[in-house]
Amino acid sequence: MERYRQFEPILISEFKSSAWTHPEHNHNHYELIFILSGEGSHVINGYAVPYQSDAVFFIGPEEYHYFDIRKETHFIYLKFTDAYIYRTTAESGNLTRQLEYLIKSRETHQHGFPLLAADLQTVRLLFNVIASLKHDIFANQDLIWHQLLCISMLLARNMPELQMDGPRSRDLQAMFCYIHKNIYTPNLLRSQVMAPHFNIAADYLGTYFKRHVGMTIRTYIHQYRNRLIRQRIAAGRMILKEIAEEFGLTDVSHLTKILGKEV
């Protein structure tokens, strides 16, 4: 399987195709894909997702995929890297968190977005704006960023993460989504607070999570939060005090303590 590498922080691609010419592949960046018209299947991690006009897909570096085109398809691609996301974290705040939520929610990557009609109309317009900015990406990168944030907000409120077969998988995915949405509010990540959301006893929550994930819920929260913090530090746009405040930590010493030698 091939791995495509992108060195630019952001790229926009718009094209039509009747036959997919790329092999099954993954990549080192994120891809937000809009189908203006066409019909076929998007094969993601070996799972075929039928698509037609107005389909939206979000693909992360961990996914491998290709398209099986049955009717000429008009694509708009927005490709971006972590460097693009975290260059503006300090200014974007809560909006960037919506994008982080989409990035972490792998079920969304697998199945796409069943958008409400009104939201779909807006998303279609936003993708058309993005396509119109492709002639000079460097000059338009801030405009593109704001379109991306708007799209991420619309997609986040159409999340299909609970539309899965089997109650155990559905409950587990709901736990992941709860953690990802509330990672900035430590008080909401205590077992006594989380358990009622899933109709489960607080004492059993940790056992259930470890049985199905292979690690404790505390370890998962710790690793996910540290990953986000390290990305902010690497971007160099926020001082440690600002990062500590964003994640609800008491002070910088608390932040450095949880990261240990990584800061």
TrEMBL record:
InterPro entries: AraC_XylS_family_regulators, Cupin_2, HTH_AraC, RmlC-like_jellyroll, RmlC_Cupin_sf. Residues 173-263 form the HTH araC/xylS-type domain. SUPFAM superfamilies: RmlC-like cupins. Pfam families: Cupin_2, HTH_18. Keywords: DNA-binding, Transcription, Transcription regulation. This is HTH araC/xylS-type domain-containing protein. It comes from Sphingobacterium ginsenosidimutans.
